Amino acid sequence: MAFMSRFSRSSSRSPSRGSQEDASNHPILSVFELERLLYTGKTACNHADEVWPGLYLGDQDIAANRRELARLRITHILNASHSKWRGGAEYYEGTGIRYLGIEAHDSPSFDMSPYFHPSADFIHQALSEGGGRILVHCAVGVSRSATLVLAYLMIRHRMTLVEAIKTVKDHRGIIPNRGFLHQLVSLDNSLRLKRRA
């Protein structure tokens, strides 16, 4: 019961269909203003934090800990720091965990935007399955993986970027790099235009 109330505040921030027009008219913050927002509030992180029901945002340590993954009942993993030199899907063989790896670099020049929709689809699929729970991670769990979680909340839950940031920051400190923030602002713009059309 306490678990659900923890998320009721966050999910109530998600705009309803009726208030969607109001949300789409909110000004889009500059990257500088977004960075100021990201530096306020919760800054602490665990190896994994549940930022949305069934959706965990974490680091590579938790991703490598099979016992902890089993304790959290993780059914899917989205790795935003996939590398051919570190364990990928084969590491989870026999666990029943479904894996998606993205070879992203935590660099402002890296284009994460082609992965926004495929990642949102993978997260949505994981959470749509009865009892599905997903870990989205990168090396530290604050930039690459956080960017994909924000995109998921914007695409699948019709949140603005600011609403998505506030929702995640209620549970975990995050700081996507400046290039990723620019890409998320572009996503915010395109989603707002689509909703108006």
Strand-pairing-aware structural class: alpha/beta
Main beta-sheet strand count, sense and barrel state: 5 strands, mixed
- Tally the helices: what do you get? 9
Mean of residue pLDDT values:
86
Keywords: Cytoplasm, Golgi apparatus, Hydrolase, Nucleus, Protein phosphatase
Protein name: Dual specificity protein phosphatase
Subunit structure: Interacts with HSF4.
Subcellular location: Cytoplasm; Golgi apparatus; Nucleus
Structure in words:
- The termini are far apart.
- The protein is built from 9 helices and 5 strands, in the order αααββααββαβααα.
- 46% of the residues lie in helices and 11% in strands.
- Mean pLDDT is 86; it is low at 1-24.
- It has 197 residues and is α/β, with parallel strands linked by helices.
- The radius of gyration is 16 Å and the shape is globular.
- Strands 1-2-5-3-4 form a 5-stranded mixed beta sheet.
Which SSEs are present, and which pair or pack?
Elements: H1 2-13, H2 20-25, H3 31-38, E1 48-52, E2 55-58, H4 60-63, H5 66-71, E3 76-79, E4 98-101, H6 116-128, E5 134-137, H7 144-157, H8 161-169, H9 178-196
Parallel strand pairs: 2-5, 3-4, 3-5
Antiparallel strand pairs: 1-2
